[in-house]
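Lecture 7, part B: from sequences to assemblies.

Below are the input chains for today's worked example.
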Amino acid sequence: MGYPHAPHPRETVVLSKYFGDPEARTLDGWKARGGYRALEQALGMDPVAIQNLVKESGLRGRGGAGFPTGLKWSFMKIGDGKPHYLCCNADESEPGTFKDREIMRWTPHALVEGVALASYAIGAEMGYVYIRGEFTEPIERMTAAVKEAYAAGILGANAMGTGKTVHVHVHKGAGAYICGEETALMNSLEGRRGNPRIKPPFPAVAGVFGQPTTINNVETLAAVPHILNNGAAWYKAFGRADNPKSTGTKLYSVCGNIARPGNYEVPMGFPFKEFLWDLCGGPLPGRKIKAVIPGGSSVPILTPEECEGALMDYEGFVTAGSMLGSGGVIVFDDAQCMVKQIARLARFYAHESCAQCTQCREGTAWTTRILERIEAGQGTMEDLDTLLDIADQMTGKTICVLSDSCATPVVSGIKKFRHEFEAHIKAKRCPMLPDTTPKIAAAASAAAA
Amino acid sequence: MSVREEGGLHAPAHAPHGDAGHAGEAPYAPVFVGARRRELDELLTRYPTKMAALLPALWMIQADRGWVSEEAMAEVAQVLDLTPAYVKGVVTFYTMYHQHPVGRHFVQVCTTSPCNVCGAEGVVDAFLEHTGCRELGVTSPDGRFTVIEVECLGACGFATPVMINEEFLESVTPAKVPEIVARYK
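Predicted structure of the full complex, as structure tokens:
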């Protein structure tokens, strides 16, 4: 539901049904709401049968990449004699995204159940939940839920009395966006600097501690018990009939210049325009929407016209010229300067670059400097070409996609809002700010010209 | 509070203003003794390697001492069979470990784009003014506060989120800042 707002009648609440309900946080409360039935059922099943069920449901990764979850699980060879690990990526740090936070704050047992279930399905006896260090409340809630689950015998060496071993452990990060990248997360979990690793080997071959590993996003894992409880066909029915590639419901975080910011859950294929205007209330009074980033700061910026016919699923957002990403919707209205905001995003990536690849370390820093120079009124027209050239050098050339993510808003921003960049360069100041040029100096320079 | 536990060769490069003090003579008291040692030993059963307990161990140090000193890095290195240089490499990678003493209340204001468009710059200014810090990263003269800007706190729908130590505040506006500052003594 649209937490912190009341649920909107057009939402389809599966994952967010109990957001705002404090009783759902406790084990008793969660069980009373149907919790842990799916895990109990799963522990009696063959792991491969669970993998097949999840494949059949069409569930795809909700962290950004959209990789089919069941297929990812099937890369884990059950019975290969090696220890397997599950990592739950709860390092939610993509600007605009705050859905996993609410899942962990309100329904921590939903995630504990999802992690335990997925661990069993991939032949792992340990599932690590890596939560970003700033998420103090989610860490507290998850730690308490894990403790309750151990005390009740749900987790441990004889999980739910089935004789199966399922452990879950909460690991606290320490402030690094890059640790949301799967191989960086594994390095961080091992007690190393969070530098992404070169792939291959892929995690299913050599992941955390050098062992076969599956890594899934919080929202992905929280959806799995619902699939066990209700069946693959039920899950697949959410979505548009003409696009079987995107199934289920999706949580969107909505923020920026919007009337009702919050989390909203809708089925795949929901019309984006109705989402923004009906569910989220549209722009603030007297304002117009100027730009929307639909899937976290790393995806291309859309104009209001491009949002017009967009459908909210993996393929729909690509058709519209962007990506579903993490589902973090950032709205900018006509009071915002796009040059300033793109510069601010570039600064984020420059700050968060792990600095092991030259293109990223240098590219994010130079991009930020040039953008801030343009915003300050000291840019030249050549700067725009330089920015695009740097962006090209930053795309597809590094170990991970942080570099590409920095280039994306720059390229789409210059393409779609070039007039704003040019206005800064021509006026030698940000046109959105009041003109502070002293009148006498302005007159003198006009006379000189 | 904020008493420097060291001096000499490894003095931190960016010691803040305020009451950092010069109690460099006090001998280093180890963190991992008694209950903390037992807690760490228990934690080690959750991972297949000792190294994996490094981040949690550093959190324990920061919880007890307020920051992670070179002596503490050397201690944790010894406890986990690592080298001090390795530990320092890890500490410096992550933004949340303090490598020098900070104010009693460490204020982190999110200023990434979604918060920026909702007025985060005004919140930063209000904190700098009302805490007496004046400048980012500088501890207030009374040692109470250090204010920094932080990249995305992951609560963009609740702009502007602010973290004060372990407490997470949502929807902070400049008008709310004086009352918030007064709550932290």
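Note for the exam: The longest strand of chain A covers residues 124-131. Keep this in mind when comparing with the next example.
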